[in-house]
Amino acid sequence: MHPKRRPLIAGNWKMFKGGPAGLELAGACKELAPKVRGVDLVIAPPFTVLAAAAADLDGTTVGLAAQNLYPKDSGAFTGEISAPMLKECGCAWVIVGHSERRQYFGDTDALVADKVAAALSHDLLPIACVGETLAQREGGETLRVVKQQVEAFLDVIAQSKAAVAIAYEPVWAIGTGKTAGPAEAEEVHAAIRTWLSNKSAELAERTRILYGGSVKPDNAEGLLGCPNVDGALIGGASLDAGSFGAIAEAAQKLAQGK
Ligand code: 13P
To answer: In terms of Cα–Cα distance, which of 126, 119, 114 is closest to 163?
Structure first.
């Protein structure tokens, strides 16, 4: 964590909490916000909850994210949702290129770059996800793979002034209970920071790099304490306001230097 960047703690609910349970969780996250001042909290519920959650979160500091978008403004794209639609229903953020999208829905590096561009052109802040598979890590390919994924959207974010976030989520650590150790995470985060700074020092400074993959209250402090880890993208533990809040509190303590 770096004093120049506010920690960003984001919850990716994936395909959970779609109805009243989602609104209840959004309400509980709203209660957390005043307790973790200095930390940016973002929640990414399923599409069906977004509009109602936006109304409930109105006037609070909790940011609302969608989990995906389609990179056209409108058209005959059955089942898809555009950046203007997300903006209109109250989102400020959108997760792009999550490994589950890449793995199950064919999101390629090129499509991810288009989605990042579409988000930025409508004032939505992307949380662009990157990360290697277990086979790639074991094959010593982690940095090559992650660099290729980052380079796909690097020009797009360099041309914007927006405070984009990049989430490094090693695929083998997602939902598995296995997590990269702080040193493993920091190695990749530092590399991402270097690739950003090769574009511009200002881009490297403003971009928050989140870690994701089995982040829990008991490992959050170690991960968030790394110099180039600016926050977390949390799956399972974000479905419980208590554990999501505990991770946000760990970020707050580190940011305050406690
Ligand atoms: P888990 O925290 O459940 O491992 O999920 C991480 C993730 O994919 C967040 O986007």
So the answer is: 126
Start-end of H helices in the chain: 20-32, 47-57, 83-88, 99-104, 109-121, 134-138, 142-158, 182-199, 201-206, 217-224, 241-255
The predicted model gives 79-108 an average pLDDT of 97
Torsion angle, CA of 45/205/255/67, rounded to 10 degrees?
10
Q: Is residue 2 part of a domain?
A: no
Note whether residue 212 is domain-resident.
yes
Q: Is 1 inside any structural domain?
A: no
Substitution site in 99, 132, 233 for ligand 1 pocket (most atoms within 8 Å of beta carbon): 233
CATH number for the domain spanning 117: value is 3.20.20.70
Rounded CA separation 161/158 (Å) = 7
Cα(81) to centroid(ligand 1), Å: 22
Distance 192 CA to ligand 1 centre (A): 20
Q: Count the domains in the chain.
A: 1
52 vs 125: CA distance, rounded Å: 20
The tokens describing 74, both together, are 């409108």
Intra-chain end-to-end CA distance of the chain, in Å: 13
Q: Catalytic amino acids?
A: 98, 169
Question: What lines the ligand 1 site, CB under 6 Å?
Answer: 12, 98, 169, 174-175, 212-215, 233-237
Closest CA to 65 of 57, 74, 76: 57
CA distances (Å), origin 66, targets 55, 72, 166, 229: 15, 16, 15, 22
pTM of the model: 0.97
| pLDDT, tens only, 12-52 | 999 999 999 999 999 999 999 999 999 999 999 999 999 99
Between CA 167 and CA 214 the distance in angstroms is 13
